[in-house]
Amino acid sequence: MRVIALHILDLIENSVRAESGRVHLILKDSKDKKTFILKDNGKGMNEEELKTVLDPFYTTKKKKKIGLGIPLTRQSILQCNGIFNIESKKGTGTTITLTYPKKNIDCPPTGDILRTISTSIIAHPTIDFLLSFQEEENILVDTTFLNPEERKALKIKDLYEYISEAFVEIDWNGF
Ligand SMILES: Nc1ncnc2c1ncn2[C@@H]1O[C@H](COP(=O)(O)OP(=O)(O)OP(=O)(O)O)[C@@H](O)[C@H]1O
Ligand SMILES: [Mg+2]
Questions:
Q1: Which residue range forms the structural domain that includes residue 14?
Q2: What span, in angstroms and rounded, lies between the C-alpha atoms of 136 and 54?
Q3: CATH code of residue 136
Q4: Is the CB of 118 under 6 A from ligand 1?
């Protein structure tokens, strides 16, 4: 069983490949479910692309014939009776919502979301990353405040520590 943080890492890579300038991850926790919303402002998909995106034999990557990121993520949700939702608009962006029922025995562990976020921030210095908790407006991490030089100079260890502190403030329980 793969941890959710790794699925999110895959989804962030999709957003990057779709030429997003901004990627926003919103974490929501409640008694019964954990929800992960990923919003990007990349090139988006039309209806036909959206329909085929859930099919593992569909991909727009040139060399590879099968795309597995979304089907695997979706499978991890469906196996525990969760909800996978994807909304996309050509030229505007894509929003993917993963909802996992916490009490289902097949619900995968969340994993190291902190590492997923810090790795993505370091790997893609030209993209703005935002992280919110419970409400979209409740922003914990926002790289738009850093100038490009500051972004490039960021060290993963310092970033990880910085995000950890933000997580302590919200009483993060790891979901
Ligand atoms: N956020 C997004 N914005 C625009 N298009 C997307 C986005 N996410 C996925 N897609 C489209 O859906 C296709 C399938 O995505 P999926 O992650 O399943 O496979 P992949 O990225 O092609 O390959 P893999 O994830 O296995 O490396 C992508 O090739 C891309 O065309
Ligand atoms: Mg992918």
A1: 4-169
A2: 26
A3: 3.30.565.10
A4: no
